[in-house]
TrEMBL record:
Residue ranges constituting the Lon N-terminal domain according to the UniProt record: 6-224
Protein name (Swiss-Prot/TrEMBL): LON peptidase substrate-binding domain-containing protein
Highest rank taxon of the organism: Bacteria
Name of one Pfam family that matches: LON_substr_bdg
InterPro entries reported in the protein's UniProt record: Lon_prtase_N, Lon_prtase_N_sf, PUA-like_sf
Residues covered by region (Disordered): 59-81
Gene3D superfamilies xref list: 1.20.58.1480, LON domain-like
Length: 246
């Protein structure tokens, strides 16, 4: 078992390997994390782990009146996550490699990172200025018939895109060619579909690529059928991604 110890960044969304993660960092605990990452030698990756927050747990207010005007802000690296922070997070997450960490004049940070490797959360250390996790790296097994399943998922995903574009009353952007490597397909489709966080989390922690692709094929067919039956959906609801209060 390969384990790593990395700074931990909880989010209200799921990060998949290969996907880009932009962050607007303003909470002090995460600003401290970014200041530490900036000390990493230039020839080494600036890595941290991203885990999704379980339903019912919220990020602590960062200042009086945000977001609850009557709330007193909690302090410390585990603020908002209870006495045992590990219980507030899903147990499978993703390592992020920060290609860009830019500090603004006001001390906040603009970060651009990319998901790399899935990890399982083993423990959380809240003794420092930010959360640090002990993590087990997870290998991505292909499973059975991954190639054929990926082809089917891509076909269904194109239909889903067309139906979604119609529901948004917008034109479908052709964009770049979609990949054909099964694991890459599985992560791209999981990230691109309009799904709730628990469903995306289920896809992230699938035991192998084939299992993820089979799940996605069912979801694509179901979602496409639902969209087909609706005359129109509010484009703002479909296109607005989750916002992280960090």
């Amino acid at each position: 078992m390969t384990t790593v110890r990395l700074p931990l960044f909880p989010l209200n969304s799921v990060l998949f390997p290969g996907l880009v993660l932009p962050l607007n960092v303003f909470e002090e605990r995460y600003r401290a994390m970014m200041r530490t990452l900036l000390k990493t030698p230039e020839d080494e990756p600036r890595r941290f782990a991203v885990v999704a927050i379980r339903d019912g747990h919220e990020v602590a207010p960062s200042a009086p009146g945000m977001p609850d005007p009557t709330a007193r802000p909690e302090r410390g690296p585990a603020a908002g996550f209870g006495p045992d922070p590990a219980r507030a997070f899903h147990q499978v997450g993703c390592i992020a490699d920060a290609a860009t960490v830019r500090e603004r004049a006001d001390g906040t940070f603009e970060v651009l990172a990319t998901g790399t490797t899935r990890v399982r959360l083993l423990s959380v250390d809240a003794s420092g200025p930010f959360l640090v996790a002990e993590l087990e790296e997870l290998t991505e097994e292909p499973g059975d018939e991954a190639g054929a399943l990926a082809e089917g998922v891509l076909r269904s995903f194109r239909q889903y895109q067309k139906r979604l574009a119609g529901a948004r009353e917008r034109s479908l952007s052709t964009g770049a060619d979609l990949p054909d490597e099964p694991s890459v397909v599985s992560y791209l489709v999981a990230a691109a579909m309009v799904l709730d966080t628990p469903t995306k989390q289920r896809l992230l922690q699938a035991p192998d690529t084939s299992s993820r692709l089979r799940d996605e094929l069912k979801l694509l067919r179901s979602e496409t059928s639902i969209i087909r039956s609706l005359p129109s959906l509010p484009s703002s609801d479909l296109t607005r991604g989750p916002t992280s209060l960090n």
